[in-house]
Amino acid sequence: MISEKQRKRHATLCAEIERHNRLYYVEAQPEISDFDYDALMRELLELEEHHPELRTPDSPSQRVGGAPIDGFETVAHTVPMLSIDNTYNANELREFDARVRRGLGGEAPAYVVELKIDGVAISLRYENGLFARAVTRGDGLRGDDVSHNVKTIRALPLRLDGDTPAVLEARGEVFMRDKELERLNKLREAEGEEPFRNPRNTTAGTLKLLDPKAVAQRHLELFCYEIAPLPGVELVSHSDTLARLRRWDLPVNANHRRCANIDEVIAYCDAWATRRYELDYEIDGMVVKVDAAAHRQRLGATSKAPRWVIAYKFPAQVARTRLLDIKVQVGKSGALTPVAEMEPVKLAGTVVKRATLHNFEDLAKKDVRIGDVVEVQKAGEIIPQVLGYVASERPASAKPFSIPRVCPVCHTAVHKDADGVYLRCLNLACPAQVKERLFHFASRKAMDIDGLGPAVIEQLVDRGLVRGPADLYRLNADTLKDLERMGEKSAANLVRAIASSKARPLSRLLFALGIRHVGQHTGEVLAAHYGEVDRLMAASVEELQEIYDIGAVVAQSVHDFFETPENRALVEELRALGLILTEQRAAPSGAQPLAGKTFVVTGTLRHFTRDGIHERIKALGGKPTSSVSRSTDYLVVGEDAGSKLAKAQALGVAILTEEKFQALAEDRG
Ligand code: IVH
Fold first, then answer.
1. Which helix (H) or strand (E) segment is 582 a member of?
2. pLDDT per residue as tens digits for the range 456-492
3. Helix, strand, or coil here: 416?
4. I want to staple 507 with a disulfide (CB 3.0 to 4.6 A). Which of 125, 145, 472, 524 is the partner?
5. Are residues 283 and 250 in the same domain?
6. Which ligand 1 atom is at minimum distance from the Cα of 309?
7. 226 lines ligand 1 (CB under 6 A)
8. What confidence tens digit (pLDDT) does each residue in 526-541 have?
9. Closest-CA residue to 354 (of 389, 378, 380, 390)
10. CA 320 to CA 308: how far, in whole Å?
11. Is residue 241 part of a domain?
12. How far is CA 212 from CA 86, 189, 215, 224, in A?
């Protein structure tokens, strides 16, 4: 039996913990230490342990994460989650403003400008004020239900106080602070794990973890910035939206401003281009939004993005540091890349000490010398690159780097690509290349051989035990156990891991072989098309090129690879060693109303993204292709269809609107 006193204590604890969550995560004004907070949480968990009936869905105990889940359910968004178009300078912002004013028949709107948080978009559904579901953006129409994980975010209220609509969908961004990433990386490094690269990818990865308890330990945070237009939610303006979100204690970023005209917008964006470094989380720009709901409604949206909003992207972050040395790396296809070794410097939320210098031509053009102060930038956020040196800081001792004439590893003369800028070591037996190729072969997305990391490969190649992938399958535990840092047990495990990789499907093997231009996706496309390796090996360039998603360059590269006698011999060796070299075809599930039909899609669609409709066609047995020909069965047309429509009409190809396509897909056509 539960006493009145215990019930009261439970209510107090819940209220107190949620108040502290709010103070810490929403208002950034904590009142108690982490230690005291943990004590309250422990007391709550113990109380609920003894009296499970107290464990309501909005109890803060729900934030510590429940049992692991099997996977994420895909759910449709009630209102699609569109993306935003980008601008990169003041002129483009003015063009946006001009478009908006034209759309409003000459009326000049007010704007609200916000920070563009560099995180992961999320849709939060509340039913009668109670948190019901959190869904990722996915393809904009359907996303993954990540409620278990999002619940662990302490800034997320599990219950909204006050007047709430029956159904509310708030949109926002889940993100991670720089200092949290640092904290996690310290822990990871202590355990010998690779550090996370940047906060955004870590956030995305964390939301996809299957164990909510692990998610709870990585302190994700949240900012909300939109309310989806649903019945029962009358919104007047964006300013009103933000005020309401805040009244419900949903976290709203304090840095936003209402601007009367585009000049004010530009000034505010400019101010943040430098102020952003004061923040301890990443932003990649600003978001400019038309304020009045009535204006937004009149402007509407294209299939991709609303016309009332635009992103203003900052130029990538740049940092300065000293160049200590230049090392030459040999890649798996022999390309030599100069890599800068630098004094560690903070850049876009992480500490970097290595950066790419692309190639020697680029290095010569930039005239970067060892000892220089260099500027580094993150390209695509992950791999930093050296932009150039700072002339005013060049020391007299700065040393130019001479272009290598021989491979730094096998010392054979290097050659320059006929059609490119790369220097290449053409010695296929070069140990550096062999190691890189083996490392790629064993990697997780390729043959996924657990325990075959760089340290083991290094020794296997250096001791002459392995010269190529086939040799791996001839290794035994006796040989392996003599390697450094390898005991009997790990040797046996490795042999087992190698053996079980024999059953990997053809798609993975194709990727693993390191054929130029064949990534994971192309591996899958080729394997799905041919089903087994012999048919693929016999394919002509023309035939390869006819496959949807395979272009001329890829077709040529695949063909060349299988024309080379050594590579054919390798395939035969792998076959003899027991690799399966086939792809299990997924049995078609469900109805296949589009079976055998070829589709081309053109123009802007309202209900599908381009990938989305291609997936749907494939799922229903049809074949999406990219150009209209006599063998095309249907052309699906969206808005602004151009030359493909004309060609289809000329050839007499059946033309479908989106609605007709849907009807056909659902077998109503
Ligand atoms: S509004 C339809 N506001 O940026 C408009 N988005 O590059 C909905 N983002 O997908 C988005 N900060 O994930 C909006 N203050 C902000 C934002 C923001 C970050 C993200 C969002 C969006 C992406 C587009």
1. none
2. 999 999 999 999 999 999 999 999 999 998 889 999 9
3. strand
4. 524
5. yes
6. 5
7. yes
8. 998 899 999 999 999 9
9. 378
10. 38
11. yes
12. 34, 22, 5, 22
